[in-house]
Amino acid sequence: MTKSQTFDQNFFKERTLVVASKHNKEQVIVPMLSRAFSLKEFVISPLDTDKFGTFSGEKERTLSPLETARIKCKEALLHSNHDLVIASEGSFGPHPHYPFLVADDEFLLLWDKRNNIEIWAREVSTDTNFGGCKIDNLQMLLSFANQALFPKHSLILKDSKDGFKYLKKGISNWAELVQSASSLLKMHDSIYVETDMRASYNPSRMKVIEKTAHKLLQKLNSICEKCSAPGFGLNRIIKGLRCEQCGTPTNLPLIAIHGCLICPHEKENHYPNGKKIADPLHCDVCNP
Questions:
Q1: pTM above 0.85, yes or no
Q2: 99: helix, strand or coil
Q3: In this predicted model, what pLDDT tens digit does every residue of 136-159 receive, in sequence order?
């Protein structure tokens, strides 16, 4: 696709979307995209996405979520006659801006191979039950299970957190949980229980993926006014909003630059947070 070429704003219409997912993510991704773009149909890729890493630790996750989603898309199309694919990847841990909070960090990437366009969206949410706990009795297990929103959210049992030999995923009822844990505790002084973060076993994560899909839809509907390519959005932030008290530039946003994925067109949005001056609280001079 050349930089001078223009796009048909309806080029998603009547196309087939390949979904690179093993855990039913299409349930929250496909409906809104289908309605918005009149997709012809969607198909689930036979790709085993667990080979790129698992939350439960059988397979180490070595790539970033975005790069993993990118590889999922490319491999999914190797098994398909289509050229439009979407993949999701998430990670769990400290919030990127508030490390004392636990967050679900989700990426959703759409790759249009025909038009050579890659568009992605990200959602960081603290609405997650992510966690794990070493236990040595059933009372500890039941306490953790209640905190983890069990049984609506499934759990995983291991004989140890790392280097485990026993692993049972997708536990979703009390009888199974207690029976499995009781058997393990007869053989081990302590065992490990953790949340099952696969989307089909974790409604909280599925909701965050749905929010990510909504963000992606908004981005797809953002059209470049020069070449009509979708995905016109934030490219970079220029910091430097000046302190109200001393006039020193701070690390707060001064200009947001939105741009096209294909052509050089850009637009500057001054004072993107709606503030023309910064509170001295954010100034390294006034509040060192």
A1: yes
A2: coil
A3: 999 999 999 999 999 999 999 999
